[in-house]
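Summary of Year 1 activities. Much of the first year was spent building the evaluation harness for sequence design. The harness presents a backbone, in tokenized form, and records the residue chosen at every position. We chose the following record to illustrate the format because it has been used consistently in internal testing since the harness was completed.
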């Protein structure tokens, strides 16, 4: 009873997605 709270349905910070994308790209590259 904590996974739902740990993983929000939508990002509230306009940048978290960008950071994640950059990290994924860096890992792939």
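For this record, the design step produced the sequence shown next.
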């Amino acid at each position: 009873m904590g996974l739902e709270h740990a993983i929000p349905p939508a990002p509230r910070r306009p940048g978290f997605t960008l950071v994640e994308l950059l990290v994924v790209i860096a890992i792939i590259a």
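The helical segments are 3-6, 16-28. Quantitative recovery figures across the full test set are reported in Table 2.
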